[in-house]
Design goal:
Length: 171
């Protein structure tokens, strides 16, 4: 339904769906995977908690992204929520300016976690994860991560994505 009118007989277009999804406010996170020249990552706004016992996280990853194969093959990944001061990190990891691979890590400080994944230093919450499962569905994969370690930074605020732009939220 659109604007309270009658239901449509056909599915909405991909463009209409993407435009409507911009109305959702999403918490920005960075998923990191790979090492050395094979390191990369991406920004996701589809990050949610799946279970507390055991601790599981869930994200949706576009299968056409350069990071999909790394997440599928690496067996582990870092999951760092972005704070109010991390807009530049979000821009690099979203590929703005054509930034790819290991160059996405430049300009920020990273810690190596228990599994070998990288976590953003100063992130409001950062999770060291192993890949529990990966389900391919249409254009995306549903990534389920098993949390192996957690780091938090109180007072870091949050970075949200809404209506096509990043918004810093102070603590």
């Amino acid at each position: 339904m659109s604007g309270g009118g009658a239901p449509q007989d056909r599915e909405p277009s991909a463009e209409a769906f993407r435009a409507a999804m911009r109305a959702f406010v999403g918490n920005c996170s960075v998923l990191t995977a790979g090492v050395g020249a094979q390191a990369s990552g991406l920004v996701v706004t589809s990050a949610i908690s799946l279970s507390a016992e055991p601790p599981l996280l869930l994200a949706c990853v576009n299968r056409a992204s350069s990071s999909y194969a790394l997440l599928r093959d690496a067996g582990c990944f870092g999951w760092s929520s972005l704070g109010a001061a991390h807009q530049a990190v979000a821009e690099r990891f979203s590929g703005q300016g054509g930034i790819k691979g290991p160059a996405r890590y430049e300009g920020a400080e990273w810690d190596t976690a228990v599994t070998g994944a990288r976590l953003l230093r100063g992130a409001p919450a950062a999770f060291d994860c192993t890949v529990e499962d990966l389900f391919d569905r249409a254009t995306h994969a549903i990534l389920v991560g098993r949390v192996r370690a957690i780091r938090t930074t109180p007072g870091a605020g949050a970075l949200a994505y809404w209506n096509g732009s990043y918004r810093a939220l102070a603590a």
